[in-house]
Design a protein that fits this description.
The protein is of the alpha/beta class. The protein folds into two domains: 130 residues, Rossmann fold (3-Layer(aba) Sandwich); 156 residues, 3-Layer(aba) Sandwich (Rossmann fold). The chain contains 13 helices and nine strands. Helix 8 links the parallel strand 6 and strand 7. The longest helix is centred in the last third of the chain and has 19 residues. The protein is globular. 51% of the residues are buried. The site of phosphoric acid mono(formamide)ester (CP) has 9 residues, from helix 2. Phosphoric acid mono(formamide)ester (CP) binds next to helix 2.
């Protein structure tokens, strides 16, 4: 049975199939008469709405489950939750604090499991990011994407995805927040080119896209004051964006904290594609689910 916990759970050929499915007219009704359970241990605007609507477009019925209702490993074990939900649903997707919960649910192999964000990975976001780049530039191979900020869940899935489609990835972080060597090895193991910088203006020079995310992710709130100080000088501003390629675009997974990781003049600039990117969350979620639900168990 196939699961989607990180973007490299797909082969490069499958990733390209998913992106094609995302742009296909007339969504296949692979969920007709079927349910999709969507569990959220953390808040969401885009992921919940995009995934619910993708399920509807595939003919299915989404059921949102908040943390208070499910209480994975609190009210009952992840092992029991997944076996119960498999009795009602064709797919179970979850946003969790601990990636291991997803791994344990997938290990049961009773229903396909999809990661809607964990502290390690945000592969559904990376699909939308790649779709946005593909639509904008008409292809992906050879593009250069610079990620500015925290080498977090969003960065990891994006960088792995870039490696799978021939996009060169650059990353620039303050000391202490750079990618760990295992991540760099994993990206290179996929044949990807990744360059680590410590000065934003050098990393952005000539890039086709500049991407950033919040400095404090959900679950890290108690580190927020320390992080605010550590990331000083790493805000993406319109001035910084002027070093991109003339056709370069600005991306952000959102929610954005204007005045922190991004300035108002950058996110509102003519090169910003953040709302196209947000809309693409629905199209790429539909592409992924359409693909996943036609895989042999
Ligand atoms: N980008 C993203 O995952 O947004 P939400 O947290 O609102 O789902
Ligand atoms: N890195 C952020 C992404 C939010 C969509 C977080 O995990 O909170």
């Amino acid at each position: 049975m196939r699961h989607f916990l990180e973007i490299d759970d797909l082969t490069p050929a499958e990733l390209s199939e998913v992106l094609d499915q995302a742009s296909a007219d007339s969504p296949p009704q692979v969920l007709a008469g079927k349910g999709a359970a969507l569990i959220f241990e953390k808040p969401s605007l885009r992921t919940r709405n995009a995934t619910e609507m993708a399920v509807v477009q595939l003919g299915g019925h989404p059921i949102y489950l908040g943390d208070d209702e499910v209480g994975i490993d609190k009210r009952e074990t992840a092992d029991d939750v997944i076996r119960v939900l498999a009795g009602y649903h064709a797919v179970v997707a979850a946003r969790v604090f601990d990636h291991n919960v997803l791994e344990r649910m997938a290990a049961r192999n009773v229903v396909p499991v999809v990661n809607l964000l964990s502290e390690e990975a945000h592969p559904m976001q990376a699909l939308a990011d790649l779709l946005t780049l593909k639509d904008e530039f008409g292809g992906l191979d050879g593009l250069v994407v610079t990620y500015v900020g925290d080498a977090n869940n969003v960065w990891r899935s994006l960088a792995l995805g870039c490696a799978m489609v021939g996009v060169v990835s650059r990353v620039v972080c303050p000391p202490g927040y750079a990618p760990n060597p295992e991540d760099v090895d994993r990206i290179r193991g996929l044949g990807g080119e990744v360059e680590v910088f410590d000065r934003p203006e050098l990393a952005i020079d000539g890039a086709d896209a500049v991407y950033t995310d919040v400095w404090t992710s959900m679950g890290q709130e108690e580190e927020s004051a320390v992080r605010l100080r550590a990331f000083e000088g790493f805000s993406v501003t319109a001035d910084l964006l002027s070093a991109m390629s003339p056709s370069g675009i600005f991306l952000h997974c959102l929610p954005a904290h204007r005045g922190e990781e991004v300035s108002d003049d950058a996110i509102e600039s003519s090169s910003s594609r953040v709302f196209v990117q947000a809309a693409n969350r629905m199209h790429s979620a539909r592409g992924l689910l359409a693909w996943l639900l036609t895989q042999q168990p």
